[in-house]
């Protein structure tokens, strides 16, 4: 028996404090709401107690950001750039610590936190640092101006990465920010606050307020916030759009998805199987652009399913801190309940459910990688965003049918196309109503590449030259 | 052949249609998969077992113009007792030499259980007539070689003459037979993947060799770079996996060339484990063609036993 | 993402940049050390014996200034050198006087490095340029002293500007394609995409502006993936070799930048005529006749030629120096099932 033996990453690199405050105007302060606990979803142990920002605390943060905006926006872009470069470097220097903390708080495998999240976080700061003194080359006219104070609310699936997507472009363009991390994953944002201090970022440029939905609402609804950026569910996105309607605030929303991953019979099958696995089981499927609907050309459906099952049997589920773990813990009890509920509905509606034999830990929140076959377009499992390691497999006969099925959803964030024929990739991409189309790959991200959705997957783009528009008065 | 693919080789056209009908390989995706598996961390007892397994899989090789009886005898001694100071170290799988040194190696290894492999067929270029290649093979087989490592005609393969490649392999396979004692030499077919250039070609050449009767498919001669890279090994493992499913016949894999460290070797074992599973984690089905690898494995073994890093001066050269 | 694409992640050991005030405080020492040797009567023009007696306690160890080719620091194959004097006429050091054969070797090194450097990710190149900025900042005092010897006013500020110039270009690595490239709406069922690509090996005659000018001509050439052979300022070549020491310790692959010191009049025509050079930047060729001769020689293999009017090195450089050494490649691909 060839085994790998446990290879746990050491927790010692992280210096967890028993409690954390808010980060306002360059200082850590108490919150006036009742503190909450953040737990390790893999073990259910409490990691720390975190302050809740009340409306008054949020107001303090917004006022600090407003004060800082004057000097920050007036600073030459080349100087702002150097702050962001510093932050990027410190993130690289402290990447081990940040990766372990992310895994502890989120439940994602350390391999992903280490090899995907953290390199991308640093890259986002590097990339946007470079824009800070080049905004007049970005295509928005000479000397484009920042908006002011940005209120930003981010989700729990990629806590630090989503923070970088929000803060890096905002700062590069000359805005100041008040950011609220998700209540189940606040810790890396608070460590980032410490990094801002190490970088000697002027006080008030970045403010981190923690709390639940009410804190988030206070941030986006604050009258002195000029710009609202939100990543999360379509449901909350709609509330925010309604809430800020008529206020004149600029809004970008990056919401849910139900992406189709489309496999043609001439695809490079071994790589397509990897792409399907990466598309839906990366980060336990807690990915808004996850390839949760597998559309397979009927002629190879059986072959592909067999290959997929064989591959799933090799996935290693368990301790997220183990360097060999492929699938970690579901982020929260609440999310686990939702994944379970939708899977039960899938079975009740007549789809066939399959998971590889795998032992799940006794404590913590776990769900095995799951495939549903015999899925019809009308099943909820094919329409609702599960946001978990659950794949719904459907078949198609022609390229046109694949496009029709792929677009038959209120969402439009991403799509995947697998074929060795280049012209078909482009034909499909032209017709797919999605903000990102991956061809012969999936779940690829780069700070230079714009990301964002069509339809109910939100509006605005993050990343690349196009992402700057969200933070400029243009 | 009594497989469902028996008539694939009936003509150059059918062979071509079959090989070009195999699913493509996306280079970026294959590279990423191999790289990801390279991050697997093998620790503690698992690592100790992996190191010993790797030693048992080594084809200890010398293929130099300067090879002499003395050099080969010394290598054979090393193959049987890799670390004279530690009897718990297992023997390697085989030694690999040129045909004219096979008899000497057979003699030196008599009764040890270590097999003798011989390269043949105008190794390493393969540029000669079929008659010469068969004679080269016959020389090694007659001298007692247990295994023949032949090279394919890459020129023929790249010019699309798949039938010629097929027929040569089949002819060498026939030359491996020992009708008398029923102990045929095993045929390893070297694809020289560094010259095939594309992963699509590696997949096609793998199938071509297996269809023609290869018992093993081997990446490289060791004389061309790149040699046994992880993605090439991955693609060949996928090929033997799919070939077994299609025909019921199991074929072994031997990456050779460029595997120098314990880390390289363990990455290969991880590739095997995750691509084809435990059925191939055995010297009968997976070999590592190497020369300097063995001492690195021994150094790693000693490091695990003593807790301190080892130095090369404490291990015999050959 | 592999480690190779993230050189920054593997380097957690960089020291934070030094405080400016203290660096400035040290700025005069290396220069003073140099004068000390001259005053000891070894080689200096005109001894100042009093001071030499006072300072005889310790003899400073001088640096040998050599060429920078293929990541190594060789002397000129010709064995020649020339004396470099400060703006006040004092002897500073002997610089190597490169020959046409050194120029030939440098072109070979630049060509060899081109594949790897142009094939590196833009992110990787940006990280390395930023690293160069970090290393330059860490040697601020040394450069300030060397610039002072060349007669530069406010040398510390010049070094600051050079560091900032490198940071500016570092940020361009992964943006220039977004600004200079385009998706073109052709009238037909085709994807049509234009992207900038580096032109190849660029011969650069650097201006007589020993650090800021030098950095301002090298960075835009290499950030997009070109490699180069630089002829340093003839009058003040020493900072360019010290800059080469910075480049050699910044993870920049050997051969991407090659630095020759010597006679512009002697070297520039050879480089301009070299058939394996793709472009030439004549910024530092002050002599109009020589520049015209170089342009004529460059025409033989249709080198791209940049010959700007004397630039203001403190002004916003814009993108001109990058686009001058970029090709535009347009890819067509049909769209259809």
Task: List strands and helices in order, with pairings.
The complex is a heterotrimer of chains A (474), B (318) and C (337).
Chain A: E1 19-20, E2 22-24, E3 27-29, E4 33-39, E5 46-52, H1 55-74, H2 77-93, H3 95-106, H4 110-131, E6 149-153, H5 159-172, E7 176-180, H6 187-198, E8 206-208, H7 213-221, E9 227-231, H8 234-244, E10 250-254, E11 260-263, H9 269-281, E12 293-297, H10 301-312, H11 333-348, E13 352-354, E14 370-373, H12 380-383, E15 390-396, H13 399-407, E16 414-418, H14 422-431, E17 436-439, E18 458-459, H15 464-467
Helix pairs in contact in A: 1-7, 2-4, 3-4, 4-5, 9-10
Chain B: H1 12-20, H2 27-37, H3 44-57, E1 58-61, H4 69-80, E2 94-97, H5 102-108, E3 115-120, H6 130-142, E4 147-151, H7 154-158, H8 162-175, E5 186-190, H9 193-196, H10 199-211, E6 216-218, H11 230-247, E7 252-254, H12 262-275, E8 288-290, H13 293-306
Parallel strand pairs in B: 1-2, 1-8, 2-3, 3-4, 4-5, 5-6, 6-7
Chain C: H1 20-25, H2 29-39, H3 49-55, E1 81-85, E2 91-96, H4 100-119, H5 122-138, H6 140-149, H7 155-172, H8 176-180, E3 182-183, E4 190-198, E5 201-205, H9 212-223, E6 227-231, H10 238-248, E7 257-260, H11 264-273, E8 279-281, H12 288-299, E9 304-306, H13 320-323, E10 326-334
Parallel strand pairs in C: 5-6, 5-8, 6-7, 8-9
Antiparallel strand pairs in C: 1-2, 3-4, 4-10
Helix pairs in contact in C: 4-11, 5-7, 6-7, 7-9, 11-12
Report the top-level CATH class of the largest domain in chain A: Alpha Beta
Described by strand count, sense and barrel closure, the largest sheet of chain A is: 7 strands, mixed
Number of helices of chain B: 13
Using the coordinates above, name the CATH class of chain B: Alpha Beta
Helix fraction of chain B by DSSP (H/I, runs of at least 4): 40-55%
Whole-angstrom Rg of chain A: 22 Å
* Uncertain ranges of chain A: none
**CATH level-4 homologous superfamily of the largest domain in chain A:** Aldehyde Dehydrogenase, Chain A, domain 1
**Fraction of helical residues of chain A:** 25-40%
In CATH, the homologous superfamily of chain B goes by the name Aldolase class I
Strand segment tally of chain A: 18
Overall pLDDT score of chain A: 97
Number of DSSP strands of chain B?
A: 8
Mean pLDDT over the residues of chain B? 96
Beta-strand share of residues of chain B: 5-15%
The CATH topology assignment of the largest domain in chain A is Aldehyde Dehydrogenase, Chain A, domain 1
User: In what order do the strands lie side by side in the largest sheet of chain B?
Assistant: 7-6-5-4-3-2-1-8
Shape by Cα distribution of chain A:
globular
